[in-house]
Amino acid sequence: MHGNDGFRLLYLWYDVPGDEGAAHRKQIETFSGVVKIDGLKFHAMTYQELIIVLSNKYRQQHKAHVRYLTEGHL
């Protein structure tokens, strides 16, 4: 499939506290608004959010790996 419906742009990023993190979040919000106006499918997600989603979904099946992710990367 080609055109705007043929793909989704995912921006996966690591969130940090402070002014730089806040500025980065604002840039992502601005970019998201621009690409949505153009009709592109865009999704931004932090690594922290991804780890939480994966750990909630796979905690029972992959306890050791989920522990490694949550303890070392959140």
Describe the 3D structure.
The protein is of the alpha+beta class. The protein has one domain. Helices cover 57% and strands 14% of the residues. A two-stranded parallel ribbon has the order 1-2. It is flat. The model has no long low-confidence stretch (mean pLDDT 90).
Write the layout of secondary structure elements.
Blueprint lengths: L8 E5 L5 H19 L4 E5 H12 L4 H11 L1
Parallel strand pairs: 1-2
Helix pairs in contact: 2-3
What is the number of helices? 3
Rounded to an integer in angstroms, the radius of gyration calculated over CA atoms is 16 Å
What's the overall average pLDDT, rounded? 90
Q: What ranges have pLDDT less than 50 throughout 5 or more consecutive residues?
A: none
Distance between the termini: 37 Å
Per the principal axes of the C-alpha atoms, what is the gross shape? flat
Largest sheet: 2 strands, parallel
> What is the count of distinct domains?
1
The neighbouring-strand order within the major sheet is 1-2
Order of secondary-structure elements:
EHEHH
DSSP strand count: 2
Based on secondary structure, the structural category is alpha+beta
Approximate strand percentage: 5-15%
Provide a quick synopsis of the model.
The protein has about 70 residues and is an alpha+beta fold. It has one domain (about 5-74). It is built from three helices and two strands.
Protein traits:
two-stranded parallel ribbon; 2 strands; alpha+beta; 3 helices; flat; 74 residues; 14% strand
